[in-house]
Amino acid sequence: MKKTLNIILGILMAVTAALLVWAIATAGSEAAISVNLIWGYVLLVGAVLSVVYCAVKGMIKNPAGIGKTIASIAIIVVVIGIGLGVALSHKGLAIPNSAGGVFDDPFELVITESSIIVTYVAFVVTILVALFSEIRNALK
Prior knowledge:
mainly alpha, two-stranded antiparallel ribbon
């Protein structure tokens, strides 16, 4: 199974690298950027599905861990809710675009800003967890 997963990972990395080279070689053509975005969405959906699958499988194998899983989901919902709340508080925001006008679609601006906030929170938490685990391992 591990060998199969490594082969799949290698294929995904090769496709990603090929698409990146294509985007760079075409100087960021619209077609290359569109295909790269679609590929990014495919990878994102695959990652989400694999996380959900592993979580459900883990809960079935170890029912004692359901409390921790529910707590993790609650924390994720709270972080997303806070990001959405902050983004919704910036109503009336207009971002200049390259055509000289403004980009002011409220739905897309809220989704984009809340996604950025959630990404920042996840990044900071990842760094803190990595530091904490390294310090804990060094003290053992």
